[in-house]
Amino acid sequence: MNEPLLRVEGLRTRFETRGGVLHPVDDVDFDIRRGETFTLLGESGCGKSMTALSIMRLIPAPAGRIVAGRVLLGGEDLLSLPEAAMRRVRGKRVAMIFQEPMTSLNPVLTIGEQIAESVRRHRGLKGAAATRVVLELLDAVGIADPEQRQREYPHQLSGGMKQRVMIAIALAGEPDLLIADEPTTALDVTIQAQVLALLRRLQRERGMAILLITHDLGVVSEMADQVAVMYAGQIVEQSARAPFFAAPGHPYSRKLFESLPEIEKRAQPLAVIPGAVPSLARAFTACRFADRCDFAWQTCREVVPRWIRVSDAQAARCHLLDAEAIQQAPEHAPRPPAHLAQRQRTPAPVAPLLEVDGLKVHFPIRHGLLKRTVGQVYAVDDVSFAIGRGRTFALVGESGCGKTTIGKSILQLIRPTAGSVRFDGEELTTLHGERLRRRRSDFQIIFQDPFSSMNPRMLVGDIVEEGMRALGLEPDPARRRARVEALLDQVGLPRDALRRYPHEFSGGQRQRICIARALAVNPRLLVCDEPTSALDISVQAQILNLLQRLQDEMGLSYLFITHNLSVVAYLADEVAVMYLGRIVEHGTVDEVLGNPRHPYTQALLSAIPVIDPSARREVIRLEGDLPSPARPPSGCHFHIRCPHATPQCRTHYPAVTRLGASHTVRCFLYEADDAAEAGC
Amino acid sequence: MLNYILRRVLYALPILVGVNVITFVLFFVVNTPDDMARMQLGMKHVTPEAVEQWKQERGYDRPVLYNGAAAGMDRFTDTIFFDKSLRLFVFDFGPSDAGRDIGHDIRQRMWASLALAVPIFIIGMLTNITVALLIALFRATYVDVVAVVALVVLMSISGLFYIIAGQYLVGKLLHLVPISGYDDGLNAVKFVILPVLIGVVGGIGSGSRWYRTIFLEEIGKDYVRTARAKGAPEAAVLFRHVLRNALIPILTGAVVVLPLLFLGSLIMESFFGIPGLGSYTIDAINTQDFAVVRSMVFLGSVLYIIGLMLTDISYTLVDPRVRLN
Amino acid sequence: MIKPVILWTDALVYLLIAAVIAFAWYARGREHLRAPWARVLESRIAIVSLVILSAYLAVALLDSLHFRPALEQRGEQAQETYYSVEVLSALDVIARPLKERAEKTYSAPFATRLYAREAMEGPDGVTVWDYPRLRHGGAHLADPDAGRAGDIARRALGAAAAGGALWLLLAALVVAGIARARAEGFTSTLARVAAGRTRIPWRAGLFAAGLLIVLAAAAVRLAGVYHILGTDQVGQDVFYQAVKSIRTALVIGTLTTLVMLPFAVLLGIMAGYLRGWIDDLIQYLYTTLNSIPGVLLIASAILMLQVYIDTHPELFQTDAERADMRLLFLCLILGVTSWTGLCRLLRGEALKLREVEYVQAAVAFGVTRLRIMTRHLLPNVMHIVLITVVLDFSGLVLAEAVLSYVGVGVDPSTESWGNMINGARLEMAREPMVWWSLAAAFAFMFTLVLAANLFSDAVRDAFDPRLRGG
Asked: Do B17 and B124 have their domain in common?
């Protein structure tokens, strides 16, 4: 075998915080060969970014320090290099791109200058020669009109473009290894597909190795040659891609797969990993995963597992694979998985609970001395739908498409510009003051970010009962307290939580508190605005299960706002796909996800990285970015990115075409069919 | 741009009207001109005639807001409010209570003020930026800790101490430069050196500490990590990346005070006998010359508003993310 | 017989103390309020600064208990008691010897003779031109030139020893208190404190307190027989003036922020949360006030106040009340010029917070606007308010000196460091230089400001979420 490009041996990094000393990287070893893609998979806080920064020696000093190990790049130990020599390695032999393209570029330098800085430093070029290379690089990362773009500043570019610029900077030194730390996490799924395709192409053309850090199994499946799974500062499994996806070796890896929401799992609760990731501040004397593992026995809680080779291509750190250790296991049978009771889906509704008709929310752009309105942001533009009692309606779209605005305008947190919102037959848009306040207990909202959705200066008990007090639902303090306790039971939190502060809880627990707070006023409709997108996969499964259970028990209706189509597939009854303020396709989950008709829906679905290689479809690559809702394109908003656009699309917005009992689409491709059917 | 400036001038008008009303109330409503006259003439043994004469000489004998005795427009224009307050809008400051032309005095004295204030401002800012950059270079080391404590000590010393001690040390003990006085033209230099030195040293404590915080905030940002990941040396990171971004708040924060430099420094000028607007104001306060104080208040507000305007414009010049409108 | 006098500033000082105690009581059981203060107390510098600040505060409080002593009754026929027009404070009673033992004019620290020569009649009847002995300073010495150094050393050491004993008692009490709170043995607690292994750095605090007590004891002992910091032009003891000035400085540093705080907080939050015309109005208000250069606004206001006070002498019973009114008004006008910055900050913060999800959630629950502002916004901007208040304190103390120098500060009859500097600067040109008034004022001011700055640094580190690591 040839010598690996990068060999990491026994790497340990410590980090001092107010809470104590952490070891986010704790004895990590791996090899990366030339030209391969090595993915480091793990949930947040497992130390994967710190591993990358340690290789680059970019750990923020003095809080962080590499305390042990070697990082051999082509046989040379990077950790023993003097800082000046290390600078010649950074950007030249190893380059890195980061998760947040928005903040990773210097806002006051043109992108041309920022790329040129690297070109000058690592290729020794100056002046016109450097500019030429900059233009080549911009062209290589797929930025149109590089001559013009290189003179622009970062804020003039979209997120996807910025990430391309970051890649161009990284390529400037012609590195052997590119470290990409969650390069697409902050991007929309269609943009993610573009960037991943770009990385694949560049790797093929230049033969460089990529260390790709991600939390997304789909991305791993699309990109990886080698997979390493990180948990609590250590690599617990490493494998070539195929065996990993065929049979993951470590129980943690297996759980990750099982807790993914998918359409096939609709009828049952998702498997969950109980508990939360252990604190990295504690010293580990046994298996780090033992507390959360279904298979753990005495040995797991006492002895650190060895690194066991399962095959040439796969190895894991688990006693289950250790022939010696398993001998001591008691009559070992894996615990039966959590009850897989079949869910009873609510049949199609009789009368809808919420009807939204012709909803428009426009934000005026004001300007000048008298604050004249010079334009409108068409955040929501003529949207209609209905949600039945006990049903889940999902609203899907990329960021900026107006889905969150719809949620807030249903709750009258934002007043709609036009249209009607009827709840249980009563018009909400004309309700004001006291009458609206009294209605508010019927509909509640759960937000995306569990960290900012609770007042950090209030006790959990006060947070949960705030709604009851404000709406005067339970005037008696003792009974109110009792109800709060009951709610905490219901969402699976200990009762003593009510005398603690939000910051004492993990992200998933906070989301449970938010759910309890919403339930406190006995709502009939819950607007869930991306409630799981800030959470790790295993915690997401817990929350989705909870929402399912509550719906079964209480007959709640959900308006589920998300960009994650697999969550929709798992949870929703109906789905509407939004593009730039309008619903472009609407139907049941089976109709829309099983048989997408609108070109945008098709592209969106194809852009999602899929885990099962056999199910991989041809990716429909959408060019360009989402246009600004302040200046939507004429005609069909999608026509500038649509592979099927016709001249008609440029001038007219298509009407609603009915494709089935509940399946509708707004696209000219189907208008003719509809007309034909109607004619029959 | 022109459009923008016009709009800002329109915005400024109500503010100036507010300032005008505040000063008017302070100077003519809280105390009547009679009170002021008695004050000026010495509290005891003041005859009503003397008061009347004092008022008449200075134009304070008219009604405050509405002159019933006059005819036509004069009913409104022949009043204290019109004469003393509204005229300020066209920079007609009128005579001081001592009888001198305020406008003339201001035009004459502002050069001395500028000769002192501008060097303090420029040299001070450069010094503070340099000190702060040096500290930022040694961040999170022992040097940083010691330097910050030293800066806190420096900023805990009263400004008066800097002046008195500086004057004593450099002027009286070492006899390097004259202690006080002023001359026109190039000769001013030797009179200005000491106060400039003192002004700069006195400002290091708070100035450098503030800039250090700005630098450290910028150093913590993501783009700095990107620059390091490019392999840029520490000096390039600091100067190319951090300094350029940090200069945005530093420069724009400094621009606000730029026009106010005209007003000079009250303490410094009076200590060193420099005949600028600062000592002019101090003298007016000490002799209770209300007309001068009133004029300086209005002038100060106008300059501040110009400063705000310049700040907005300077943002568009140094920060590519900000555009006018 | 005495008649208590509560000056306006006294009342506000009491109010402030009451508010601080009430807050401490309220915060006791609330972890999120207590935690940042606990972090402050973990810093050695903060503890030392706190000890120094407490010493200043104690002096200021003593000096805020005012009364008018009864005049001695003459004859039997007096039915009512008449009270002196002179308002005294508890501090004046303690320091009465210092106040009363005035010399003729300047004398240097620890001097036994006057600074200026004058004609004296010698023992032989010949008129000599020489430095006369002081009436009080070192008057007990038979031979001032020979015995002075030894006398000073003896007295200082004696007092220091007594101070040391006092400190030992204090230290023992503190350690016993800690031991009790932790249910631990006295000796083991003592060992931990001595080794500096406590979470709150008691050792540093006790060290600072010890130093302070010993110094103060020596100063008090020596001040009884010497003018330890000399005398000023009219022979007043400079040490007494410097100590009396403490109250003025603390009043300006704290009351100014206290009077402006309600406006800044209320208007800032209202502007940011309610938006619309309220926002426009409040913004207009603070931009206008801000546009007048601070010194000029203060100068105009104080000038006008002085005219008003002088033309209405009947409003004030005593000189002290008149001086106090000017002090209070100075605080007010300083407050007017300094609230705008905080108001703008709070407006910006409220603008951000109104879009935060927990506020949105509260709206969704139909929580009233008033309750959202008091329950959700206010607690979440309080750290900004606190940081501003402590940061402003030292700036205000320094500003007092400058304003008094310009002549628009406190009343000339009020003791303040600014007035001391103002009075002494004219004597700079004398040979030999009269430096002690200046030095005393600057040293007292510097110590206070430095302690306040260091303390405010610790407070900011503990409260500013941006500076909190991890």
From this structure: no
A588-623 pLDDT, tens digit each: 998 999 889 999 999 998 888 887 766 666 777 787
Instruction: Indicate the helix (H) or strand (E) that contains A67.
Output: strand A64-73
Residue B323 resides in a domain = no
Q: Which of A431, A455, A499, A504 to mutate to test the interface with C (most CBs of C within 10 A)?
A: A455
Q: Give, in degrees to the nearest 5, the angle at Cα B138 between B133 and B142.
A: 135
In a domain, B96, yes or no: no
Determine the Cα–Cα distance for residues A653 and A665; give it in Å rounded to an integer: 12
Nearest to B230 among A98, A117, A367 (CB): A117
Residues B142 and B290 in one domain: yes
In chain C, % helix, strand, coil (3-state, to 5) comes to 70, 5, 25
Q: Are residues B111 and B164 in the same domain?
A: yes
Taking CA–CA distances from C378, the nearest residue in chain A reads A457
CA distance A399 to A406: 13
- pLDDT, tens digit (0-9, with 9 covering 90-100), for A426-458: 999 998 888 888 889 999 999 988 888 999 888
Give the model's pLDDT for residue C441: 92
Residue where a domain stops, chosen among B90, B120, B135: B90
Total residues belonging to chain B: 325
Cross-chain residue pair C360–A501, CB shorter than 8 Å: no
Name the closest residue on chain A to residue C365, using Cα atoms: A467
Shared-domain flag, residues B154 and B297: yes
Does any domain span residue B97? no
Q: Which of C405, C427, C445, C461 to mutate to test the interface with B (most CBs of B within 10 A)?
A: C405
Cis peptide before A62 (omega within 30 of 0): yes
| Beta-carbon separation of A173 and B231 below 8 A | yes
B/e letters for A386-415, b = 16+ CB within 10 Å, e = fewer, are bbbbbbbbbbbbbebbbbbbbbbbbbbebe
Is some CB atom of chain B closer than 8 A to the CB atom of A121?
yes
- Specify the pLDDT at position A680: 40
Which residue among C364, C367, C470 sits closest to A444, beta carbon to beta carbon? C364
User: How far apart, in whole angstroms, are the C-alpha atoms of residue A438 and residue A431?
Assistant: 10
* Residues of chain A that touch chain C, judged by Cβ-Cβ distance less than 8 Å: 17-19, 63, 408, 411, 413, 436-438, 440-441, 443-445, 447-449, 452-458, 466-467, 470-471, 501, 514, 517, 521
Phi, psi for B49 (deg, rounded to 5): -65, -40
* Whether B13 contacts chain A with CB within 8 A: no
A90 → closest Cβ in B230, B240, B245: B230
Which residues lie closer than 8 Å to C295 by C-beta, 6 or more apart? B266, C403, C406, C408
Range of the domain at B152: 102-318
List the single best residue of B223, B237, B251, B325 to mutate versus A (max A Cβ within 10 A).
Answer: B223
The reply to whether B80 and B191 lie within a common domain is no
Integer CA distances (angstroms), A241 to A223, A305, C411, in order: 9, 23, 84
Q: Are residues B6 and B31 in the same domain?
A: yes
Report the CATH number at residue B262: 1.10.3720.10
d(CA C276, CA A92): 54
Q: pTM (2 decimals)?
A: 0.87
Domain boundary among B90, B123, B140: B90
Assigned domain for B166 exists: yes
As for the ipTM of the complex, it is 0.86
Those chains having 3 or more beta-carbon pairs within 8 angstroms of chain A are B, C
Number of domains chain B is built from = 2
Chains that touch C (3 or more CB pairs under 8 A): A, B
What are the tokens at C396?
A: 């205000």
Q: Are residues B29 and B169 in the same domain?
A: no
- The DSSP element (H or E) to which A366 belongs, if any, is strand A352-367
Same domain, B124 and B265: yes
